[in-house]
Amino acid sequence: MISNFDSLINPKRHFGAFLLHNFYAGYNPAFVESVLDLFDLSPKSVVFDPWNGSGTTTRVASQRGFEAIGFDINPTMIVVARATCADKSTFNSSISTLVETILHSKPHETGISQHAFKFSPKAKSHSKSSIREPFELWFCGSTAKSLRILEKRIFSCLGGTSRDLHDLSPLAAFFYLAFFNTVRTFVNPFCGSNPTWIKMAKEDEQKLSLSRKDIADAFRRSVIELCICFDEAFLNNPCGNDDYPSKSVELQIADASSLPLGNSSVDAIVSSPPYCTRIDYGVATRPELAALGYDDLAMDSLRRTMLGANTVPRELPPRSEEWGTEGLKLFDAVQSHTSRASRGYYDKWIAQYLQGLSVSLGEISRVMRPGARCALVVQDSFYKDVLIDLATITSEMAQIQGLLPIGQVPHKVAVSLASINSRSKPYRSNSPATESVLLFSKSS
Asked: Which GO molecular function annotations are given, in alphabetical order (predicted)?
């Protein structure tokens, strides 16, 4: 039994973070280090993250010599996590030469219908003949075409023959990440006060027009910035390995509610489910998804599969005892709230979240070996004036699914994106948040 939690590092990203991509839902690599130390795993242990995001868990676990598995439903994050799998030998004097080769190569493919990466299992797309260039949401036709040509050049030089992200090499992922950051720089004018919500051009006059030189120069800068980031990561590698990471990493597009893993197959889980805050991570990564070829229909389909999505089902999901006492209490409080759309929209949203989290925790329990341990980072929030105590909800659900709580470590959060909504002020003047590390074990 674990009894001393003082060694656990605060999960928030404020020191030693490996910031390849500005993805909000992240935690400190030092936190993962401290969890793995606390769990005291055997060298042959398998470490898993069902919401892998930018790959912090898999990167640190691999660096520590463990077999690492990371799944995420968002293809963007598979690319980011794959880029972190690059070892030191990737970054040599040939990088600058490779950049120029990419910029001046002739792409092997033509037409939007032939470039798109394979979508996640549940995502749908228009027929190939009707796909619209996703970049045209923000860019004029000629600029969108230039950006797509650059994407195809990266794939032609580094992507091989498969359009499956599972087959993307770390080097190719590195250059795709540089391309993501290039696009992100250009679409910044479409970001409002909420950095996770990317607007689209309403009129053609609002669309951006860029020269090929502008795009090429920005891409070069992005590559240089990423190289610096990697250099710092290698320099600050606490394990002192020349090769980084040092163990195999398996990354897949997968839904946490339906994990493609066998029963009792992992020894430790370090993860953070999407918080119940209505932050739309599909929209937050829309520019990157556009780079991967996600059209409107595929984008909508992806958003509907993500835990915590703003999109809701037509029918209200039925109440379930597997939501736990606190989850059912929250659902009733939301449905009976006097504010507009509490019944008809927000009750569907909260029910969808509770059901998705419950099923995902059941899957987590299923894949954990007897004696395996799990650390989940969760954060509370509010619906109007109703507290969403996600720590208690998650703990109750996990116990229903067969996990044993062995510890809880709270941390106060000074600022969270969930608190920037000015429309919440009539309901409460202060919105403090608590982020909690929940620790569980699977009974032997």
From this structure: methyltransferase activity
Q: Name which of 219, 186, 215, 179 is nearest 96 in CA terms.
A: 219
The sign of the CA dihedral 274, 26, 117, 216 is positive
Question: What residues have CB less than 8 Å from 232, skipping those under 6 apart?
Answer: none
Q: Report the DSSP pairing between strands 266-271 and 46-49.
A: parallel
Q: Are residues 125 and 254 in the same domain?
A: no
Supply φ then ψ for residue 269, to 5 degrees: -130, 130
Residues 320 and 371 in one domain: yes
Q: pLDDT (tens digit, 0 to 9) for every residue of the chain, 444 residues total?
A: 566 777 888 887 554 445 566 655 678 899 999 999 999 999 999 999 999 999 999 999 999 999 999 999 999 999 999 998 887 776 666 888 999 999 998 876 544 444 456 655 555 555 444 558 999 999 999 999 999 999 999 999 987 777 788 888 899 999 999 999 999 999 999 987 777 788 999 999 999 999 999 999 999 999 999 988 887 776 666 554 555 556 679 999 999 999 999 999 999 999 999 999 988 888 889 999 999 999 889 998 999 999 988 889 999 999 999 999 999 999 999 999 999 999 999 999 999 999 999 999 999 999 999 999 999 999 999 999 999 999 999 999 999 999 999 999 998 886 555 555 555 555 555 667 899 999 999 987
Residue owning tokens 């027009």:
209
Give this prediction's pTM: 0.90
Distance CA 368, CA 147 (A): 43
Count of structural domains within the chain: 2
Asked if 166 and 197 sit in the same domain, the reply is yes
Q: Where are the beta strands (DSSP E) in 50-195?
A: 67-72
Buried b (16+ CB within 10 A) or exposed e, 199-215: bebeeeeebbebeeeeb
